[in-house]
């Protein structure tokens, strides 16, 4: 979006949950690869990629059946963040307002403990929010959530992206393989949380 012993193998399962904390909407979604039949069938489509600065990251696409307002409210529901994203060991809201929020997070990754501050910005309320690291662990963290229209009324496309640059070298293949697997599970959990009105066990 995990309080246990960690090994390098755990990166494959949980290493990138933190990056969930932390792009405008058109039905055709021309800037991302979309297969509507697979998405409407419930598939979470995950892809490894790089941003314009060459930083490795992950993109996830999945469809959610819920009102746009409810989806947005869930993404900014900080009181329930640790339940929606259970990989967070500790979490605080440092600042919060109409334009965004500043969050402090403590996340264990592969026997390491990372503490950092993210600035979330509500770029287009109800449609798009972004986040970036402003202090703490890692060289950089940048990402976003987008809520986009689809050809099916009442169903929205969630687009998640996150790019992380570690302060120390970690093989990209190892990190991305684990990140893709984790992001798929995170997306499935979040969708269930939203569609079941925040009552995921």
TrEMBL record:
Which SUPFAM superfamilies does its entry note?
A: Bet v1-like
A Pfam family name for this chain?
Polyketide_cyc
Q: Which residues form the Coenzyme Q-binding protein COQ10 START domain?
A: 64-190
Q: Give the family per the record.
A: Belongs to the ribosome association toxin RatA family.
This one is known as: Coenzyme Q-binding protein COQ10 START domain-containing protein
Q: Which organism is it from?
A: Candidatus Entotheonella gemina
